[in-house]
Amino acid sequence: MKLEKLYKIIIERKKNMLNGSYVASLLAGDKDRCIQKIGEEATEVIIAAKNNSKKRQIEETTDLFFHLLIVMATLGINLDDIYQELDKRHEKRS
User: Fold this and answer.
1) What is the pLDDT of residues 21-67, one digit of tens each?
2) Is residue 4 within 8 Å of 79, Cβ to Cβ?
3) Taking CA 72 as the corner, what is the angle to CA 21 and CA 82, rounded to the nearest 5 degrees?
4) Alpha-carbon distance 55 to 31, whole Å?
5) CB under 8 Å to 57, separation ≥6 — which residues?
6) Which pLDDT score is estimated for 33?
7) Alpha-carbon distance values, 65 to 69, 93, 94 (Å)
8) Neighbours of 72 (CB within 10 A)
């Protein structure tokens, strides 16, 4: 699944707040919980990298991307905003 598709699903869950949805439960709760999940997942990415486990690295990076997208949705940041910032940074270096 592409990040754009996952982000659209997250936005849809945010709009509809489906009962039983993990995304909806995070969005309905304290914003600090969503942010805390990023810290937890980032730590797990670091540990997987330290342990040289490609499989775990992929799994934990996926979790980190997922939770970053949720926080982005809470702040009204979309992937195009990120792409534009990346383009700006690249242009500065070129």
Assistant:
1) 888 888 887 788 889 999 999 999 999 999 998 999 999 999 999 99
2) yes
3) 140
4) 30
5) 45, 48, 49
6) 86
7) 6, 26, 27
8) 18
